[in-house]
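Project channel, design review

CF: Before we commit to the Haemonchus contortus constructs, I'd like one complete example in the thread so the newer folks can see what an input/output pair looks like. Taking G_PROTEIN_RECEP_F1_2 domain-containing protein.
RD: sounds good, go ahead.
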Amino acid sequence: MCFFLKFTAIYHMTFLFYLKEMPVGILQTLLETFILFFYTFTLLTIATSREKVFRSAFYILFISTGIVDIMSLLFCFVLRLNSELGLSREYRYVILYSIAAGRAMLTAHMLGNAFITFNRYSSICLMHKYNKIWTQRNVFIIIAIQYGVSIAAVAYIAKSNVLYTQSEDGTYKFRGLDPNVAMITGSIALIIGIVCLVTSLGMNVKLFVKWRILLKNRDSSTGRHAEKGLLMYIITAFTLMMIMSIEDVLFAVSSATANYELFTWVNDRVFWMNDFMVTVPPLSLTFLSADLRHAILKIFLKAQSPILVTPVSHAFRGGVQRTTTEAQSHRRTTVHLS
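CF: and here is what came back for G_PROTEIN_RECEP_F1_2 domain-containing protein:
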C-alpha cells in the first residue's frame, strides 16, 4: 500500500512537470482534438439514434449549430497556427478565407442559438401552435436562413487586403484586415449579434415567467416540452452569445481603428474563448438532457454486452442452443453447448 502511494505521488509529480514544460500551443491542440471528437460523437449520437425525441426541431437545430461550431474550431486552428508560427505572406489567402469562414461560423452560432431559444419559447408560450410552427419544412427553411445570412454577412471580407508588418529580420507578422472592411463586416456582425441578444433576452424572460406559472398551477399538459434541462440549456447558450458578442466588438474596433495593441490582446485570447464556446454546448446538453445521457449510455452498454458460454446435457437436441435474456440496463446472450 505504501509503495502504491509513493508510485502515485511520483506519477502525479511527473505529469505536472511535463504539463508545465509542454508548450501552450501543443496543450491547446490536444484540448481542441478532444473537443472535436467529443462534439462529433455527440452529434453522431443524436443523428443516428432511433429515438423519436431526437427527431424534434430542438435537436435538429442543435445539430445544425454544432456543425458550424466544429467548422469554427477547425478554422480557428488554422488562424492560431498563423499566429504562433508566423506564416509568411504566401498564406495570406488561406488566412483571409479562414477569417471569413470563422466569422461566418460565429454568426451562424449566434443565429442558431436564437432559433433554439425561439423553439423553447414556442414550446411553452405558443404551446398550441408548436406543431404548426415546427414542421419539417419550416425547420429546414430556418437552417437555410441560418447558413445563408451568416455567409452573406461576411462576404465582403473577400475584398479585403491582409495587413502585415515586416520585422527587422525580414519576416512578416499578421496585423489584421483592411480597416474599412473590418469596420463594415464588424458592424454587420454587431447588428446581427444585438438583434439575436435582445430577441433571445425577451423570449427568455417571457419563457421562464410562463414556465413558473405552469409549475405553480401544476399544469401537466406541457409534457415533454417543459423539460427543465433544455430550458437551462438556452440560458447557457445566451450567456455564450453575450461573451462572444463582446469579444467580436473588441476585435472589430481594434481592426477598424488600427489599434494594434488591442488587436494583439484580443487575438491572444480569441482562440481560448472559441474553444470554450465550442466546449460548452455538448457538455451542457449532455449534463442537462436525460434523453442524450441515456442514448450515450446505451451505446456503451451495447459495446460491453456480455456473451456467456455454458455447457449443458447432451439430452438436448439441436447441438447449440442460444438463449437471449433482456434486462432493462443491458442485453445478455447465453450460448449452450451440447
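RD: helpful, thanks. The longest strand covers residues 320-326.
CF: Residues 1-22, 222-226, 313-338 have pLDDT under 50 and may be disordered.
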